[in-house]
Amino acid sequence: MSTTPETIALPVTAVTCLEDRAHVERSAVLELAAGTQRLRLGPVSALAVDRTLHAEVTAGHPVTVLDVRIVRSWTPRGPRPTEDDSALRHRVAALEEERVTLGQQRDRLHARLDLLGRLAADLLREIGEGAGSGETDRTRWSRELDRVDDERDRCGERLRTVEARLTALAAELSDAERALDLAETEPAELVGHIELTVDAAVAGPARLRLSHLTSCALWRPAYRAVLDGDSIGLDTEAVVWQRTGEDWSDVRLTLSTARSARATEPPRLGEDRLTLEDRSPAERRTVQVELREEEITDLGPTPVLGLPGVDDGGQVRVLHSPTPVSVPADGRAHRVPLSSFTTAASSEYACSPELSPLVSQVVRFDNLSGHALLAGPVDLVRGSGFTGRGTLDFTAPGAPVRLAFGSRDDHRVVRDIEETRDTAGLTGRTVTTRTVRLHLSRFSAPTEQDERVIVLRERIPVSEISAVEVRLRKEACSPAPDAIDPDGIVRWNVPLAPGGRRTVTLVYDISAGAKVTGL
User: Fold this and answer.
1) Residue 315 neighbours by CB under 8 Å, 6+ apart
2) What would you measure as the largest C-alpha separation in the chain, in angstroms?
3) Which residues on neighbouring strands pair with residue 224, listed in sequence order?
4) DSSP secondary structure string, 446-468?
5) Which range, of 7-16, 120-129, 232-241, averages the lowest pLDDT?
6) Domain 87-183, second-level architecture
7) Which residues face 35 on adjacent strands?
8) What percent of the chain has pLDDT over 70?
9) Are 11 and 246 spatial neighbours (Cβ–Cβ below 8 Å)?
10) Phi and psi (nearest 5°) for 336?
11) Residue 371, SS3 per DSSP
12) What is the 3-state secondary structure (H, E, C) of 47-74?
């Protein structure tokens, strides 16, 4: 069997980015000789999963793939940069070496100052002892003290210079390391190559297609919404991160929400027995009820609880990049445009005082992107520029989209609630009357003249049993509600002039029989 001595390049041509990994495809044209031969291809990422490696060779003559495997080699980097490294990396190494040298010099100066301090103390003790014994050699004493003080001053000045240089060097080294981190990545020490063993009937060219899974790659959806009067433009992008050890240059990028790490086996069914029991006398005399909060969803399928990552509505979604893209292996976020559309939009100023006293601008439009909009962050842009960041929920193709563009600071809503309870003496029926008052005000500039319609939404309970009745007293409401849906959401369209004030009153009764408990 012949072995090719040189390494054949095997570039990445297509990538399918999954939720937490990537499926990489490579292709190359090989010049095969007749017979069995072993080819060395690469280099490839050392993070490639061996058991997912698959090779396919197509040619005009019979070619059989006998074996394909990943061979990894460890080449540790030396302590100093080589000639092939960039000038920035050499600069960082020079600064680190200078820092070590200055640190050693600072330690020596500290030791010399400490020694000079002890020498000055010994000299002063000798002068004291000599003066006590009658010695009067003032000239020598002055000369020695001056020499020690001059040397201490010189060492102190050199120490201050070294410490100042160390401070400046630390800042310069920090900037250089930050620039190096932004401009370059550390070359991989663990590198993989593909060893491909094939058997060709005759010599000739053949096309190799090789695929495998790799970790350290993921993507998430992101959006940008631009509101311009009665139209809105929505740009869909994919934010891709990858640190697989090799760059993706001009590849066909596909984004998928498939979760290959999750088991595909159905859950095991367990036995669940239902039994009937007679009610006790106390249970026959009373009807136990309770209030339950339930979220209303009408913008697509309900998100699957416990499913991490991308919300795809429980169905695998596949998106394609319209053009080849390049994603470097630097671990940073890279935005890839996917689709863009502009459509008519309706806008309203809505407020749900029970949840929040803020009046928000809500824009509604249809999803005309041609694909499902996955849940993700959206950058909001209006006429004045960037206004903030919101969240876009999962939306099926063609389904309505509801997007909030922030609250209005010139509106204020105050909510008051009163409750009275009355029990009939003969029947024991209890009637609870609730009165909700919403005080709405608008603070406007002198130049504003347009009237603004505020959509107020309140809710009333919805009864599921005949023993409890909920009745809206429309004659007591001021003004009368414009609409009420089966979920108990009451809506008013309140026109509000500049500087205007309005009060909206909602009154409803909750009637329960004598046997009902829990309200």
Assistant:
1) none
2) 124
3) 235, 379
4) TT----EEEEEEEE-----STTE
5) 120-129
6) Orthogonal Bundle (1.10)
7) 200
8) 93
9) no
10) -120, 115
11) coil
12) CECHHHCEEEEECCCCEEEEEEEEEEEE
Contact 37, 66 (CB under 8 A): no
Task: Show the tokens assigned to 236.
Answer: 């869909």
Nearest to 458, CA basis, from 475, 477, 441: 477
Residues 313 and 399 sit within 8 Å (Cβ to Cβ):
no
Give the Cα-Cα-Cα angle 184, 188, 191 (nearest 5 degrees).
Answer: 145
Contact 7, 40 (CB under 8 A): yes
Q: Where are the alpha helices (DSSP H) in 318-436?
A: none
- Looking at residue 285, the DSSP 8-state letter turns out to be H
For residues 228 and 324, the answer to whether their CB atoms sit within 8 Å is no
Q: How many CB atoms lie within 10 A of CB 419?
A: 10
Where do the structural domains in the chain lie, given as residue ranges? Answer: 2-77+187-214, 87-183, 219-261+298-408, 411-517
pLDDT digits (tens, 9 = 90+) for 19-52: 889 999 999 999 998 989 999 998 999 999 999 9
Sheet containing 346-351: which strands, arranged edge to edge?
A: 400-408, 359-366, 346-351, 452-459, 489-496, 483-484
Number of neighbouring beta carbons within 10 Å of residue 276: 4
CB atoms within 10 A of CB 362: 16
Cis peptide before 76 (omega within 30 of 0): no
Which residues, including other chains, have CB under 8 Å from residue 253's CB and lie 6 or more apart? 14, 15, 17, 238, 240, 320, 321, 324, 325, 327, 336
CA atoms within a 13 Å half-sphere pointing along the CA-CB vector of 30: 34
Quick check: bond before 308 cis, omega within 30?
no
Give the pLDDT confidence of 65-123 residue by residue, as tens digits: 999 999 999 887 777 777 778 888 889 989 999 999 999 999 999 999 999 999 989 88
Instruction: Tell me the C-alpha distance between 449 and 394, whole Å.
Output: 38
Q: What is the DSSP letter of 424?
A: -
Q: Rounded to 10 degrees, what is the CA torsion of 442, 444, 449, 453?
A: -30
Which tokens go with 269?
């069914």
C-alpha to C-alpha distance for 509 and 519, rounded to whole angstroms: 13
pLDDT at 297 over 80: no
Task: Compute the CA torsion angle 213, 214, 217, 218 (nearest 10 deg).
Answer: 30
Residue 261: pLDDT band (50, 70, 90) is low
Query: Locate tokens 């004493």: which residue?
Result: 141
pLDDT higher than threshold 50 for residue 306: no
Q: Classify residue 47 by burial, with Cβ atoms within 10 Å: 0-12, 13-18, 19+.
A: buried
